[in-house]
Design a protein that fits this description.
The protein is α+β, with helices and mostly antiparallel strands. The chain is built from twelve helices and eleven strands. A five-stranded mixed β-sheet has the order 6-8-9-11-10, covered by helices on one side. A four-stranded antiparallel β-sheet has the order 1-4-3-2, with helices on both faces. The protein has a two-stranded antiparallel ribbon with strand order 5-7.
């Protein structure tokens, strides 16, 4: 069974949430948006491809068709030249008309001959060719490339016509040229021949592209769905949920952050549970003492000379409870970012002397020597009550961990930047390096050599208070063994501090072990 988080408010069923998300449209889910975006992109690319490709294909086809048409004109010219040579050799003169040769070119073609009569007395078939077109023929162009494109339009026609002139050569001599014409629509490839095949090719390419898009989208969103399921488990209270690596840097980073978050939640819940057990014990002890003394006083079984002692015990235990409640309130305000300080000019030497005087009797009662080494300290701007609270907690913690016969040393010296550095060292068992950050975590408490355990709040509050005042608290090894807690404070607390009301202050110094 995983750990369960209990909280107020209306419970949300993760399965119901998943069903609701399933009912959402594609536009409202990341996977749907990825799919829609990819599909729209593919369709747009396919349309652009089809439009551009169709134009290119049609242009290339038109060029190829025009080249074929030019070749046909050259072949007809060569055929006429060959036939003319045969006529000159045999004397068999025949009148060739354009209709005799149009069968080589196809319907719609017209052939004109611009040359001396191939046979004496034969008619020259140029009656329908405009003079402007005939005048465009350039003998040098024909001699250079064998053909020439002409600008020609059938009189009265609305559609363009292509025209090619080809040179007639007989026995190495030029006898003129033929002009072959044909409607441009008959030379170019019609759209009806290009579009169907192009659409088919586009569709055949689009289908596997869409299938690949769906597959890639599913692969990309699978880790997110896994993380969603894990988040639902955590929301339901299962803190054993984790997300495996996805194989990509960004998602692996998110998965690692998620797993770290869950681990911290699990650790925090474990500490909270441990804290509840500890605080229950710590609350029960003074409450039991208070109830016992109150009952004895009420029943009149306390001798008159012991009444003041019983009342003093009740007051002491009540003060202990009040200090513990104050610690809890302070920690809650710090966590909620609602904690404020009241900076003022502070004689730190006097505050340290007062803290020392308050703890000497406690140290003597435990057989511990409390010593000081306090140099000349500057006046700094800080919160005097919070500064005193930090020192009290550190001294209390040191006495808590120092065995009888040991020593606790309070030292203080100015810093080079106008602030102060205060350290509290003990001769206790010390703190292992791997535990030094954990001791500042809320609710972290360990039994001391005598088996007594504090609430685990004091050191956490010390560090938070020190950082709120612009400084910090760190832990190290004491010169003679044990641990040293050192606090540094600047010459002035951070600007913008807000004055707190009296009810936000702790009601009494902290006299119980804190860490």
């Amino acid at each position: 069974m995983g750990n369960r988080i209990q909280g107020g408010g209306t419970a949300v069923d993760p399965a119901e949430g998943r069903r609701s998300r399933t009912a959402l449209s594609l536009r409202q889910t990341l996977r749907g948006r990825l799919l829609l975006g990819a599909v729209v992109g593919l369709l747009a690319a396919a349309v652009v491809f089809a439009i551009v490709s169709s134009g290119l294909i049609r242009s290339q086809t038109a060029n190829a068709s025009r080249k074929t048409f030019d070749d046909q004109a050259q072949r007809i010219a060569a055929l006429i030249g060959t036939a003319t040579l045969e006529q000159a050799l045999t004397g068999n003169c025949r009148n060739y008309t354009p209709a005799d040769l149009q069968a080589f070119v196809g319907p719609g073609a017209h052939l004109y001959i611009d040359s001396p009569p191939l046979c004496p007395g034969s008619a020259q078939p140029l009656e329908n060719l405009p003079r402007a077109t005939q005048a465009q023929i350039d003998a040098r162009t024909l001699a250079a490339q064998g053909y020439q494109h002409l600008d020609y339009r059938v009189p009265g026609a609305t559609t363009p016509t292509v025209a090619t002139a080809a040179e007639i050569r007989v026995d190495g001599k030029s006898l003129g040229a033929i002009i072959l014409t044909k409607p441009a629509s008959a030379v170019a490839t019609p759209w009806s021949d290009v579009v169907p095949n192009l659409l088919l090719a586009t569709l055949l390419g689009l289908i596997p592209a869409l299938a690949l898009t769906f597959w890639i989208t599913a692969r990309l969103t699978r880790p997110l769905r896994t993380m969603e399921a894990a988040a639902d488990r955590v929301a339901a209270g299962d803190l054993d949920a984790s997300v495996p690596p996805a194989g990509t840097e960004e998602l692996d980073h998110v998965a690692s952050a998620f797993n770290g978050m869950v681990a911290r939640l699990r650790e925090r819940e474990d500490r909270s549970r441990e804290f509840l057990m500890n605080v229950t014990h710590d609350l029960r002890t003074p409450l039991t003492a208070i109830r016992g003394h109150a009952a004895a006083l009420r029943d009149g079984i306390v001798p008159p000379d012991e009444v003041d002692r019983s009342l003093g015990a009740i007051d002491s235990e009540a003060a202990r409870l009040s200090a513990m409640v104050s610690d809890l309130l302070d920690l809650a305000r710090i966590d909620a970012n609602q904690f404020r300080i009241d900076p003022a000019s502070v004689n730190t030497h006097e505050v340290l002397d007062e803290a020392y005087a308050a703890e000497v009797a406690v140290a003597d009662a435990h057989g511990i020597t409390l010593a000081t080494d306090i140099g000349a300290l500057p006046i700094i701007v800080t919160d005097p009550e919070r500064f005193r609270q930090i020192i009290d907690n550190l001294l209390t913690n040191a006495i808590h961990w120092t065995p009888s016969g040991g020593t606790v040393l309070l030292e203080a010296h100015p810093t080079t930047v106008g602030g102060i550095s205060v350290s509290v060292s003990d001769s206790g068992p010390g703190v292992p390096p791997d535990q030094r950050e954990r001791v500042f975590a809320p609710f972290h408490a360990q039994p001391n050599p005598e088996g007594r355990t504090g609430s685990g709040l004091g050191l956490a509050i010390c560090r938070q208070l020190a950082r709120t005042l612009g400084g910090d608290v760190v832990i190290g090894d004491a010169p003679g063994g044990g641990a040293t807690f050192a606090i540094t404070l600047p010459a002035a607390a951070p600007p913008g501090a807000v004055t707190t009301t009296a009810e936000h202050r702790s009601s009494s110094p902290h006299g119980e072990p804190q860490g």
